[in-house]
């Protein structure tokens, strides 16, 4: 249901659960296992996550919810929080490629990624209220952090969706594209650019990004800033800059 491939330091996670790539409990468990594989592979410098077929993910598996008790659904929410938080705190950047729809749990997954690319016509939203329920995978918290409390509450309380262009204006999407092909080409270029740099630098930046508050972030940044100058990649990068040549990071 979710597959990992690695080419030239770029890992690609593909959600493949026809027809709409709905997020089941089993799929979330598989995602957690794939994150284990990513974290244990030092060659991976950047991760792409995308959906097979027409959609990124049209949401959680609603039919699955009907057979579960309140306690089981509460635990499922906790379990999914842990997985999505792992993505947000990963030591390498994760880029979401959104097409068709990223709704409900699909948008919550995309919002846990560090960079979000989208096609113009893609629909993004948290429409759970239309079913008489509510978001359960940190969607409210993350949406507020990206677009502000007032607009986030308007979207969540009305079930309103926005297209890729509107999402870019709001700050929910990093960059929007006219076609899926254009988005894929840009994602390939972006991931290659990032993967061309030192893993030490990438990990340091992402570690500071994952800090919980300003003080912790500054402390971590200072420590890593000092340590990174002792790495071979830093020495190579500085020497290449002085020698006016391209660095050869290992």
Alpha-beta classification: alpha/beta
Shape: globular
What is the topology, as strand order, of the major beta sheet? Answer: 1-2-3-4-6-9
Helix content: 40-55%
SSE order, as H and E? EEHEHHEEHEEHHEHEHHHH
Which range does the strand content fall in? 15-25%
Q: N-to-C terminal Cα separation, in Å?
A: 33 Å
The overall average pLDDT, rounded, is 95
- The stretches of 5 or more residues where confidence is low (pLDDT under 50) are none
Number of helices: 11
Number of strands: 9
* Radius of gyration from CA coordinates: 19 Å
- Major sheet details: 6 strands, mixed
Write the layout of secondary structure elements.
Elements: E1 2-7, E2 10-15, H1 25-39, E3 46-51, H2 62-65, H3 70-88, E4 94-98, E5 101-103, H4 105-111, E6 115-119, E7 123-125, H5 139-147, H6 149-158, E8 161-163, H7 164-170, E9 175-177, H8 180-195, H9 199-209, H10 214-228, H11 232-243
Parallel strand pairs: 2-3, 3-4, 4-6, 5-7, 6-9
Antiparallel strand pairs: 1-2, 7-8
Short structural summary:
50% of the residues lie in helices and 16% in strands.
Describe the model.
The chain is an alpha/beta fold and 250 residues long. It is 50% helix and 16% strand. Helix 1 packs parallel to helix 3, helix 5 crosses helix 6 and helix 9 runs antiparallel to helix 10. The chain is globular. The two termini are 33 Å apart. The mean pLDDT is 95.
Write out key terms for the chains shown.
globular; 50% helix; 250 residues; alpha/beta; 3-stranded mixed sheet; 6-stranded mixed sheet; 11 helices
């Amino acid at each position: 249901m979710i597959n990992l491939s690695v080419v030239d330091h770029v890992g690609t996670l593909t959600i493949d659960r026809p027809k709409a790539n709905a997020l089941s409990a089993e799929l979330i468990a598989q995602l957690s296992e794939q994150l284990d594989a990513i974290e244990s592979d030092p060659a991976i410098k950047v991760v792409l996550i995308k959906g097979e077929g027409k959609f990124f993910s049209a949401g959680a598996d609603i039919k699955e919810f009907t057979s579960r008790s309140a306690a089981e659904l509460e635990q499922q929410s906790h379990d999914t929080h842990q997985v999505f938080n792992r993505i947000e705190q990963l030591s390498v950047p994760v880029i979401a490629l959104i097409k068709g729809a990223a709704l409900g749990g699909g948008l919550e997954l995309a919002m846990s990624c560090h960079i979000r690319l989208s096609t113009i016509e893609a629909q993004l939203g948290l429409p759970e209220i239309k079913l008489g329920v509510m978001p359960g995978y940190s969607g409210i918290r993350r949406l507020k952090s990206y677009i502000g409390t007032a607009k986030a509450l308007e979207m969540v309380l009305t079930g309103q969706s926005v297209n890729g262009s509107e999402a870019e204006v709001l700050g929910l999407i990093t960059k929007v594209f006219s076609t899926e092909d254009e988005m894929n080409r840009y994602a390939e270029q972006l991931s290659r650019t990032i993967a061309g740099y030192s893993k030490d630098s990438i990990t340091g930046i992402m570690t500071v990004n994952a800090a919980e508050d300003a003080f912790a972030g500054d402390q971590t940044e200072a420590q890593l800033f000092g340590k990174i100058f002792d790495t071979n990649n830093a020495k190579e990068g500085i020497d290449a800059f002085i020698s006016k040549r391209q660095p050869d990071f290992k």
